[in-house]
Amino acid sequence: MVADPSLRDSIFHKSVVLLAQHSTAEGAFGLILNQPSEYTVGDMLKDESLSPLARIPVFVGGPVAREHLTFVVFSLSENNQLEYSIRISAEEAIERSQQSGVLVRAFSGYAGWNPGQLEEELDRNSWVTSPAPTDFLGKTHDVSLWGDTLKSLSPFHRLLSLCPTDPWLN
Predict the structure, then answer these.
(1) Taking 90 as the threshold, does the pLDDT of residue 168 lie above it?
(2) Is the Cβ–Cβ distance between 77 and 134 less than 8 Å?
(3) What is the mean pLDDT of the chain?
(4) Domain locations in the chain as residue ranges
(5) Closest CA to 33 of 153, 137, 161, 118
(6) What is the distance between the terminal CA atoms of the chain, rounded to a whole angstrom?
(7) What burial class does residue 130 get, using C-beta atoms within 10 Å of its C-beta: 0-12 exposed, 13-18 middle, 19+ buried?
(8) Under CATH, which number does the domain 2-169 receive?
(9) For the segment 60-101, what is each residue's pLDDT rounded down to a tens digit?
């Protein structure tokens, strides 16, 4: 999901969210993909056995449970579809980080929605839904991911990606 430019005053401003779980009865769970923090796993976990993960950047995954670190593995399937495994153990993250074609990320916190909340936001056009770009693993995962993802959707979305933070100031 890509945040609409109207989501200016929240943690979701210019964010790209991986919607990992969604149920009308249970709500939704996701991770913000393009908000790197200034920390690495090594800054947060001092255990020597986790040293192979020390240089992995930590991203702000969302406003909920920011004291928890979640490891995620991204890869491409044989037919070029993005695959991911969420909430893997540190040991599995170490193992997978040594494989080619795999991207391991760490996230502090997550994005969560109560039942019906995400549907209301989608009805208000607060989010643009999009499949993951096939070149996701090679993209820079910072605020530029937001604009790059929007630009790839349609000419209208390209214009949205160029919208200034506050168009009323122009």
Answers:
(1) no
(2) no
(3) 89
(4) 2-169
(5) 137
(6) 28
(7) middle
(8) 3.40.1740.10
(9) 999 999 999 999 999 988 888 888 999 999 999 999 998 988
